[in-house]
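Collaborator request log, item 7. Partner lab (contact: R.S.) asked for a structural prediction of SXP/RAL-2 family protein Ani s 5-like cation-binding domain-containing protein to inform their binding assays.
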Amino acid sequence: MGVATLLIPACLLVVVASQAIVYNSFFCIDFGLDLKLNESYETQLQEQLGYSLRGTASKLETRWRIVTFYKNVLAKIKPKLAAAKFNDIKKLLWEGDKTALHNAMYSFDDWKTKAIDAITNAAKKIEIRKIINNLETANKSWDDDKRAWMPGMGFRKCSLK
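Returned to partner:
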């Protein structure tokens, strides 16, 4: 009797879990997910999808502006540097961006310091620093975009099901 008492509920639990049957208990209601009301559930689901889509679109727009800014910086400094040095600095930018999970708030300032340190000619250092600073100043949304793009923020792995 003892083994059967444990085995039968365990088998039923496996069947319920494998068929994705939602058990409406007081636990669900306590957390605001009253799944008995299908219409309420659908409304909540549609609202969450709407929020996610707007958030995702905003993140993609921000990332596009950051990448465009990077490309503009590289285009402005390319004529000032030798091809080999430019390729090293370009590689440094994209590797730093990838390492920092595309978080410009951290990677760009590090890249700027490393890129200027990699240039040996003092006059070129001043010129490149001035170009980058002018581009940052001219791009009014740059600071906002750097702060807005935080990988992991706003992307939650949760669902209403």
